[in-house]
């Protein structure tokens, strides 16, 4: 099926920028879209909740003024702890956000409202079972969060998950998991995905709402410095060891927690992401902080070079 026409406007690369808690803000989203990729942010990043209307108004206005800007997306967490969901979705409908990215529970109640104004819904999944539930809910695309992705991530190899889902689904797929350069974007397409889904690489940008110590930790870390644990939110995720140690915890001895412990809407929930830094296993390939537009231009050059090299390979 490929990329939907409504999301294929002015794309310089087949990339959706992952919505990162705290990190993704209007400055970053606007820079991403103006660079030619789909920018996104979690609705919960706009605090207090009344700020979301201002963010959406600003993003729409600035992108409308640029005829070359790509579409944008908003992430909605579907979980009982998210007391803002109804409020935030009403604003997304009001502003006709082109793409809604949903996480955790299947977006059965959200899809009809988004489709009513012509928007699309993509859902995060880490398994075939989650994909089937999302498709039953009527989503327009799947985001496969595979092993090595930053934040909440699954454990399946992208080769395994893409292959199994492509056996029964021919719609849009975005692939996540340690994608930090143009070569990896091309590889995602070669494996059967329509989009690469990139998060961690954009933490190391000037526009990202991350403290300088966090950005430096991204530059200083490699895959061995990433810990996979459910301790901080109740859902397994990848975090930088350095930040866990700084919080006075032992990365090798973190207790188990379950989903009932999640609280995305409260200050205590935000602290996990503020002080305990999420990152994917691709950090070892990130060496400098760039402006988002400069980063996207570099990704585009790497992508083109990789495609040329592959086409010139006799095999």
From TrEMBL:
<protein>
    <submittedName>
        <fullName>Nitronate monooxygenase</fullName>
    </submittedName>
</protein>
<keyword id="KW-0288">FMN</keyword>
<keyword id="KW-0560">Oxidoreductase</keyword>
<dbReference type="Pfam" id="PF03060">
    <property type="entry name" value="NMO"/>
</dbReference>
<keyword id="KW-0503">Monooxygenase</keyword>
<dbReference type="GO" id="GO:0018580">
    <property type="term" value="F:nitronate monooxygenase activity"/>
</dbReference>
<dbReference type="InterPro" id="IPR013785">
    <property type="entry name" value="Aldolase_TIM"/>
</dbReference>
<comment type="similarity">
    <text>Belongs to the nitronate monooxygenase family. NMO class I subfamily.</text>
</comment>
<keyword id="KW-0285">Flavoprotein</keyword>
<dbReference type="InterPro" id="IPR004136">
    <property type="entry name" value="NMO"/>
</dbReference>
